[in-house]
Amino acid sequence: MSKLRIAVQKSGRLNEDSMRILKDIGISIDNGIDQLKASARNFPVEVFYLRNGDIPQYLKDGVVDAAIIGENVLIEKGAGINVVEKLGFSTCRVCIAVPKTTNYNSIKDLEGQRIATSYPNTVEMYLKENGVSANLHIINGSVEIAPNIGLADAICDIVSSGSTLFKNNLKEVETILTSEAVLAVSPKLTAEKQEILDTIQFRIKSVLKGRDSKYVLLNAPNDKVQDIINVLPGMKSPTVLPLAEEGWSSIHSVISKNEFWNVIDDLKAKGAQGILVCPIEKMVL
Fold first, then answer.
1. In Å, how far are 187, 236, 278 from 199, measured between CA atoms?
2. Residue 1 burial class via C-beta count within 10 angstroms: exposed 0-12, middle 13-18, buried 19 and up
3. By C-alpha distance, which of 154, 115, 107, 155 is closest to 134?
4. DSSP class per residue in 138-153
5. Is beta strand 239-242 parallel, antiparallel or unpaired with respect to 213-221?
6. E strand spans, 1-119
7. Number of Cβ within a 10 Å radius of residue 169
8. What is the pLDDT of residues 237-271, one digit of tens each?
9. Widest pairwise Cα distance in the chain
């Protein structure tokens, strides 16, 4: 059986997050230091460790079949490449920033200005949409120092926490797009390898659903059970089991981590006691 070739970023946070999700879906990779390619021991997959900016071309050419890659890189370099799953990690923003001392009112203030960036296509598209013409200086790496050395009036780069902008006396003034890691596929993917990818995607969905959910167990007097069930979202309906103590039941359910505290407050108000909350490793629907 042929192997599915998956590209991941060769280093950095995206690499760590990518390898973690492959491990969580049961794919064991034997990779050594500075290794450019590694095979899975227990699944028909080969992992290629590549520069993030090179991955879109590898996908287009069919050198790799799929990739875990930043959505921002695909927007910049990956026209025509399909995204089959958003993965919810390695989130960032592509932003325009200017020196803190700059009096900035709107995007129109960038008319005729010099913008240093590693994302020229993304910036050009954004400026065009807003009717602004600027001079782009393409820089690979250390974009944030450009205004300090007189090379540019503004920059466009990826931003996570904003600490790098702060250290370089820059302020964020425009957010072009928000980005996260995605699973992308080559337009040359074969039917045989699509079957392997389908299995991987199914497993990823189960892991992501588990990460986004909490398992809740609680005790309640029987006369409060229906009120409590009414505030529990659940997958289909909560599980209700009688306790050894007469007149009491144990209720089990799953809730979204985004709704967690609001639901817990409602449960307490409805009479729930002994609330136990557990993480979910995987959730197969």
1. 18, 25, 27
2. exposed
3. 115
4. E-SS-GGGTTTTTS-S
5. unpaired
6. 4-9, 37-39, 45-50, 66-70, 82-86, 92-99, 114-117
7. 13
8. 788 999 999 999 999 998 888 888 888 888 888 98
9. 78
**Quick one: which of 81, 79, 76 has its CA closest to 64?**
81
114-117 vs 154-159, strand pairing mode: parallel
Rounded to whole angstroms, what are the CA distances from 80 to 57, 113, 185, 187, 190?
11, 31, 10, 8, 17
Q: How many CB atoms lie under 10 A from the CB of residue 112?
A: 10
Tokens at 120, concatenated: 């020229």
Spatial neighbors of 209 by CB under 8 A, at least 6 apart, are: 280, 282, 283, 285
pLDDT, tens only, 145-176: 999 888 899 999 988 888 888 888 999 999 99
Write the CA distances from 271 to 60, 220, 267, integer angstroms.
57, 6, 6
Tokens of 42: 């227990």
Rounded-to-integer distance, Cα 198 and Cα 196, Å: 5
Per the structure block, which two tokens stand in for 126? 């954004």
Q: Is the pTM of this model over 0.70?
A: yes
Q: Are 82 and 185 in contact (CB under 8 A)?
A: yes
Measure CA 209 to chain center.
13
